[in-house]
Amino acid sequence: MAYGAHHSPIPPHPDLSLARDCDHCLGWGTVITRDGQHELCDTCQPDPGGGDPPFGVPAHRPFPG
Question: pTM to 2 decimals?
């Protein structure tokens, strides 16, 4: 009987330069939930839905003319 998807054993990759002075995560950039899962810190890490495109996605460049 399946109970749901397993969580990834690899923790998320925070931006440590943003986490350096954070009092919530103590500079780690991640927090551990009550379920024992690693999540990005809500206080110092930006929302993944906005901002720059993720790595590997090329920016639009006009054709050389």
Answer: 0.56
